[in-house]
TrEMBL record, chain A:
The lineage of its organism: Bacteria, Bacillati, Actinomycetota, Actinomycetes, Pseudonocardiales. Keywords: ATP-binding, Nucleotide-binding, Transport. SMART domains: AAA. GO terms for molecular function: ATP binding. The keyword Zinc does not apply. PANTHER family: ABC TRANSPORTER ABCH.1, IMPORT ATP-BINDING PROTEIN. InterPro entries: AAA+_ATPase (IPR003593), ABC_transporter-like_ATP-bd (IPR003439), ABC_transporter-like_CS (IPR017871), ABC_transpr_LolD-like (IPR015854), MacB-like_ATP-bd (IPR017911), P-loop_NTPase (IPR027417). Residues 5-226 form the ABC transporter domain. The keyword Transcription does not apply. This is Macrolide ABC transporter ATP-binding protein.
Automatic annotation (TrEMBL), chain B:
It comes from Lentzea flava. The keyword Transmembrane applies. Belongs to the ABC-4 integral membrane protein family. It is a multi-pass membrane protein. Its main location: membrane. Pfam families: FtsX (PF02687), MacB_PCD (PF12704). Residues 21-239 form the MacB-like periplasmic core domain. It comes from the Bacteria. Keywords: Cell membrane, Membrane, Transmembrane, Transmembrane helix. It is found in: Cell membrane. Residues 278-388 form the ABC3 transporter permease C-terminal domain. The chain crosses the membrane at residues 21-42, 272-299, 319-344, 356-379. This is Peptide ABC transporter permease.
Amino acid sequence: MSPVIEVRNLRKTYGAGDTAVHALRGLDLTVEKGEYIAIMGASGSGKSTLLNILGCLDIPTSGTYLLDGIDTSDFDEEQLSLLRNRKIGFVFQSFNLVPRTTALANVELPLVYAGVRRAQRRERALAALDLVGLKDRTHHRPNELSGGQQQRVAIARALVTSPAIVLADEPTGNLDTDSSREVLAILDRLHASGRTVVLITHEDEVAAHAMRTVRVVDGRVAGVLV
Amino acid sequence: MRLFDIAAFAVRGLTANKMRSGLTTLGILIGVASVILLIAVGNGASSAVQQSIAGLGTNILTISPQRAQPGSPVKPLTTADAAALVGPDSPDVKYASPVVSAQATAGYGGTSYAISQFIGTDPRYFETTNSGVAQGNLFSDNDVQQARKVVVIGATVATQLFPGVDPVGKSMLVNNIPFTVVGVLAAKGSSGLQDADDMAVAPLTTTQNALTGYGSLTQIVVQARSADALPNAQAQVTTILNGRHRISQTADYRILSQDQLLTARTATTETFTVLLASVAAISLLVGGIGITNIMLVTVTERIREIGIRKAVGAPRSSILGQFLIEATLLSLFGGALGVAAGMLGTQFTIAGIKPVLVPSSVLLAFAVSALIGLFFGSYPASRAAKLRPIEALRHE
Ligand SMILES: Nc1ncnc2c1ncn2[C@@H]1O[C@H](COP(=O)(O)OP(=O)(O)OP(=O)(O)O)[C@@H](O)[C@H]1O
Ligand SMILES: [Mg+2]
């Protein structure tokens, strides 16, 4: 069986000439289906850059990225949006919920773009919110929710489409210890139910939840700790 | 994904910021309403002018002095000229009234009022110009011979100087000379640019004495026996005047028939309408720039939201669609309200003009506002839809 994520010689350069920043310098990474991986590394080492490319939010300067066995290199914007919608659930450090919109509508959002019918949409969104323990907050807007609750809504949104991979960029970075624990427990459960999870973190306790930790140094994978 | 869901996003986007949506709508409303209203006013003015000229009758010739070539002598139009126009040599001329006119300041009690046309003439003038009397009497030939200080005033002058008072029999000061008001003319209404009731008529002799002096007449107004006799009357008048003024080439006077007057006036009011329409077009354009502005602000302010939508898999077309629907809804809504406001406005008399709605202007204003919304909304929307998700999410 092919790996869910297979990245070969990935490079990402911001800018050009003297001011060019080489965020990724020939990075290789393979993630098998059902794995739970923590990515660690110094600030500026290229972790977010990598994850954004894995989430098809950004495109690499060169290198190949096979997602679920599909080569994404020559995908156009339309096909990439389809991939983002069907295969990927992304959780941001800063939550990124649509403002002035209820938790339920936020979770329904990917399903709308997937063309799911209204009734089924509602049902699945409610199930996802139930999974993150927010069944009683469905009609709250982001500004009426705590940080931890907002992040749980964001996770519900990431998993509502049953994506092949869930990517999380420092999902607990803005949360206190209790909220972090809740979020990590949800990710643990996702992993236990067979989902592939990749998260970025600076904290060893968070990384301890993962099956293995990938260290990124200067835009390359330095070593794999089991 | 269905259009309905996209439209629902658009409506939610609009209702999320009611103030902004409201102000944009207002901008378009004003633009559309002013186009409709100003064109209606222009149209109303020109039809009023046409009506008032047609009301004068089609059997009138107006003779006024005209400078011939430089250096060639100009004889003034005189009372004798006017008298000579009626006689056996001109069987088709019924009347010829000498006319002098000036502006004058009239006073009564504590109030004073500037009359824009103070006319001196003979009693036939009233018949020629279809002027009826509403109160009191007109003056007579005897008043003209005796140069009596009597005056017949227009409806506007009556309401301005004699509010709530019967003017007949009152003494009114014209340029500090007392005149007795003997009658008030029936109202004719405004002809758009000019208020036909803002006038007073006194005997020729008196007016020359008191106001204009004994120079050239301002006009001779000729009434032909009938509308059909007008060309003959014009020929007879020309022959007589050419003889009296010893004209061989260029005449030192000008004869205008009612038809020509109508053409000239219509041209004037058309210019007026075009002027009003361009003012209106500018306000519509300003409304359009308003939409562009708001759409730019809306899109810029929501680039992060666009990034979020793209991150969860929104295709470019749905983002573009959402913002285009928002812009179109705004301009359609504003346009519809503008049409309503414009049509309501045409029910009122504005600056003395009864507006006449031009149906095509409604369509035009509405279509232009909708297109403006679509056109100016599409630029910022397509720019936003093209952003890579991460660029949009990072936007400050
Ligand atoms: N849009 C951009 N334009 C230019 N340079 C960028 C851009 N995004 C990232 N970089 C640069 O690329 C390098 C890697 O950035 P990245 O965000 O991937 O780091 P990171 O490992 O996630 O750091 P942190 O742990 O602080 O989040 C940094 O040197 C950064 O300055
Ligand atoms: Mg980062």
